[in-house]
What does this fold into?
Amino acid sequence: MPLNAPVRPTMCATCPFRIGSPFQELAPALAKSALTDASRICHSTGSNAISANTGLPEQLCRGARDVQVHYMHLTGFIDKPTDEAWDKKCMEMGIVTPGEEV
It folds into this structure.
């Protein structure tokens, strides 16, 4: 998977970060993991514990990315809580550009 894999443009219908999601109780642990470990793969894409094999290419979870960019913005690491600001910071730091393979 690319270092900076594609991010879902919106939260999937059952995203744990979506209010009313059947998986909403997972959001705090997933948010902690997204901030301390790595970006999360959306459970509606790729192969995973919830959906086995979705038949769709893996994408990063929109809800988890929103948590990441809001935190990065609050700490002053990026100038806006957006994917574009995240991509800009990655490029400034010499991290692979979006979609590039590691």
